[in-house]
Amino acid sequence: MELALLYSGGKDSSLAALLLDEFYDVRLVTAHFGVTDDFQHAREAAAELGFPFETVTLDESVAEDAVEQMVDDGFPRNGIQRVHDHALETVAALAVDAIADGSRRDDRVPTVSRAAAQSLEDRHSVDYIAPLSGFGRHAVDDLVAANLAVETGPSETVPKADYEGELRAILADRHGDDAVDEVFPDHEQTYVHGRR
Amino acid sequence: MELALLYSGGKDSSLAALLLDEFYDVRLVTAHFGVTDDFQHAREAAAELGFPFETVTLDESVAEDAVEQMVDDGFPRNGIQRVHDHALETVAALAVDAIADGSRRDDRVPTVSRAAAQSLEDRHSVDYIAPLSGFGRHAVDDLVAANLAVETGPSETVPKADYEGELRAILADRHGDDAVDEVFPDHEQTYVHGRR
């Protein structure tokens, strides 16, 4: 069974790939807006893990709307959710049996409710799988430590290919660097360098 | 890492075992009240899958309370949830790093909310993992078909070791066979005979 996993090069989506590897033909798919070439980091991480890799291009107007929403809100949550929903719709249109992402039980954003999952599945005749949604933060940390070689640091310095890099770039371009600091709190990002 | 998986011999908990096998030292644990010897079916299914097996004994008063609740309700849902909660508490007291069950995204009962999961984890210093909670019914069916040899039939005839058999026995003993038919709707059960 062919499965497309939304992939950022970070620890969560990398661990999701390992969990599914035994049961599906997993390909790692990075969704991007064509704004930066951050997706190259995900390509390298995918190669280090030994998975096939491809990209899908998202609609840039979704990024622009998401950025305006983040500025209005003063926090990134709703904007990131909007982009993730759009990315899932885009990946669901690929010719695969199943799609997946790295969302965890304890994530606040992005989230995919049971109703949203079933709607995605029904409309696209595809299974939506969230392999980490039954794992809490501590279990994920243990599994990452045991199975992945990880680089950790602040969002600005660790190479990664989730939407945040492109959304930050659009935000800086439209509203200046201060707006980026206002919208995005400091937090740790991770980047994966292969299996342990 | 040592993991105890609540095990019935059915397809869901068997598939959960396969999903976790690569990442944990999985033992299959059947919780029972000592009312019937149905747990022997789970022991055989565990042996056919090649996992270590053990049992834990539950508090029979929980089964009795659950049965009375089912009779009062006219349906089994709340009683089964009560027994499952008690079983998780019991397994969480074992000397393991993690506990797990076979609950799925689309299950109506038993369910373990995020808050309940975190409470269980905090009180017992254990991870609670629901490996199938990110999989919908269709994805589970596909994975079962690809990975497990399964016998399917009505609840009364397929050997299985979930709580239902013992709860039916207590219910019949206290309220007669008609009460069993009133409380438990007809539904298909599954029993696993090894891997494919």
From TrEMBL, chains A, B:
**Annotated Gene Ontology MF terms?**
hydrolase activity
Q: Keywords, A to Z?
A: Hydrolase
Keyword Nucleotide-binding among record annotations: no
Q: Which one Pfam family would you cite for this protein? A: DUF7411
The record's section on InterPro entries has:
DUF7411 (IPR055834), Rossmann-like_a/b/a_fold (IPR014729)
Q: What is this protein called?
A: Alpha hydrolase
